[in-house]
Each structure stands twice: as C-alpha cells, then as structure tokens.
Amino acid sequence: MLATRLLTSRTLGPAARHLPSSQSVLWAANERCFVRHASTAETEASSAAKKQPRALTEKEREFLDRAVCLSLIWTCDGSANLIYAGQYSILKHDKRLKPLIRHMWDQEVHHLKTFDHLLAKHRVRPTAMRPLWNVAGYALGVGTALMGEKAAMACTEAVETEIGTHYNDQVRVLLEMMKDPELKELVDNGGVEGELYGLLQTIRKFRDDELEHLDTAVEHDSKGADGYEVLTNVIRGGCKAAIWISSRV
Length: 249
Prior knowledge:
With about 250 residues, the chain is mainly alpha-helical. It has helices spanning about 1-10, 20-50, 60-70, 70-90, 100-120, 130-145, 150-175, 185-190, 195-220, 230-245.
C-alpha cells in the first residue's frame, strides 16, 4: 500500500496524496493510457502529414505547366494518329503495307492515350482546335494514300520530321528549366510523384518512335513521290502552323 502511494505521488504529484489508494491507482493508469494515446495520435498525424503532398508554389506550378506542354504534344500525336487512320483505311488491302502502317498507327494510339491521361491528370485544357485537326489529319492521310504508296510515305516523312523536331525542342526546354536553383526541391524529388523525370523519359521514348517512323518512310522511297518537294514542304508548313495556333488557342 505504501509503495502504491509512493508510485502515484511520483506520477501525479501532490494532488494524488489526498486521494484514496484505489482512486490514485486508477488516476495514474488513466493518465498513462491518455499519454500513450496522445503519443500514438501525434505519430499517426505526423505520418499522414508526410504522405500528403505539399501544395506547389507558384514557381513550381508554372514550371510544370510549361514543362509538360501537353496541349502542344497532343496536337502532334493526335494529328499523327488520324493521319495513320486515314492511310490505313485506304491501304489496308495491301498485304505488304497493312502491317507496316498498323504498327505505326498503334504506336501513335499509345502516345495519344498516354497524353490524354496526362491532360486529365494535370487538368490541362486541350487546344480548342482539336476537332479541326482531327478532320484535317484524317483527310491528309486518306488523300496522300490515294495518291499512292510513295506519297503516303512522303506525308509520313514530313509529319514525323516536324513531330520529332517538336519533341526535341521540348526535351531541351525541360532540361534547361531543370537547372533553375529555385526548382531544386522539385527536381531533386523527381517532380510531383516522380512526374518530372517520368515525363522526360516518356517524351524521349515517343520521340524515338516518331524518328523510327521517319526512317521507315525514307526506306520505302518517300523521296520518290511525285512532287516530293512541294508535297513535303506544304505538309511541314501545315504542321508548324497547327503547332503555332494550338499554342495560342
């Protein structure tokens, strides 16, 4: 009994000495339980706080918006997707060309799905010109396929040259912006949930796919198309105009 009173007195202080021994023990037990629960709750709250991503600063938000450039990239891949769809609709009966165009088209579909997901995730509004580019891309694919295999390949060469150039520009801008000391934490952490480096690798991979399409077109005598210079220059000019307009609308 004396030991119990000494324990409660040390734990609870002078006030406990005036309580019956049973109440003192209960008081001590309750206090210890409260302290344990409070400590556990504090640990859980701290852990939850660490799991929650902090709010981005204005500088970081601007960085991601500029680095992603999803709307412009979508313009390129969305148009290429419809061009191959148009070519396939005409050349699918050619046993030699069918698997070739289907392969390139499938890659563009994958690119488009990836950037559609990123558009939604980052809440980036696609260009308002999207419906027009859809129609123009499909019409270009059908039209060049009707002109023959070499014209279709010349179209592919022209389009993929511009898309590859655009991808390279995005990679250069992204790498340059990552040198900004004010963005050190964002860059060192790999961006939001690793988005930054993941995006860089995605752009590089998709760029390589586009350049593969370009090589394929050249290998299939794209330069032998009738009116090659005029055809490719017109298409490349249209691609550049589409990218420029999409960056502003």
